[in-house]
Amino acid sequence: MRLSIHGLLQLSRIFEQYNLSDESVAAWGTGLGLHYVKSLVRLHHGQITAANTDTGVCFTVSLPTDESAYTEKERAPRNPDLTRYDHHIDGAGTEEDIKRPNHHEGTGLEADDARPRLLIVERDLNTAFFLRHLFEADYKVFNRYEGEKALNDIAEIRPDIIISCVLLDDMSGLDLCSTLRGEKHYDRPFIFLTTCNAGDQQAAGMRAGADYYITKPFEPDYLQEVVRKALDIVRAYESLLRQVPQKQTAKHDEELSKRDKEILRITQKFMKENISSSELDVNKLGRKLLLSRTKLYMKIKELTGSTPNELFRVYKLNYAASLLKEGKLNVTEVATQAGFSSVAFFSRSFKKHFGVSPRDYS
Fold first, then answer.
1. pLDDT value of residue 355
2. What domains appear along the chain, each with residue ranges and CATH number?
């Protein structure tokens, strides 16, 4: 690439995503590549510059070599439990060693392994390894490199969350997601992590059933937080289901209709967002669920055996109990956090529900 005199003025913009030259002679653009490279360099606390030469553009990359330039987390050693395998390039027989986890094909969990299950569907080995390294301390990670393989193993893996790219070799990630949501009845969080960042592609990803659509390059901390938040919603939903009295309904989670599950999810999310309120705004919740006040009461009663306000009170008490378990707040602070207007009323309600006073609860 050789820039004209006019192009020299735009040299600093070539790292911008989808930057297009406005030169009248010919139009050229830098697309994603240079933007992606600059993002990677910045993640490594480095710098990249471009300068025009007689033969083209010269790019200079500088990276720090002093370990003090990186945080402890960034200096974390790579997983030593690796194996090497021969990777053929373009069928020409040239071989290079690619490092790859040697335990990615398993589907079992040790008896005492209570970590959430994370399925990564990613065809690029380097990205797949990076994601495994990013999550394997807190999650049981399973790698699959093809969509069909992921579909075939989904019942055995039973992932709590899935991260997938869109561009797979055997099928698109969109087809994978829509099939999981349809035929496989997978209702846990699904995250797209992809270079496909056009607006219509993101919309297609959400229509396929994805919960989140994150484009590369991405901030690892942000992705980790998205996964944590998604699993928090799942745990809260499961906690809500555990509050459903079995004598009131014979339906278990897998027997609930998709609409009923959605009602419980939205209700749980609404309660979480309004935890500090003293009473549940039933009318506002009804508008979110597109249900009249009467139908809302009937549906919540059918699913949980409780009225919306009773369910909200139990939810607040369980939340208060979790705060007391942490031991960071006193009883008055917990009552305020859980939305009880009176400490005395909170103490009476807590003791009636748990059988012990908040002060004696541990």
1. 84
2. 5-64 (3.30.565.10), 83-233 (3.40.50.2300), 256-360 (1.10.10.60)
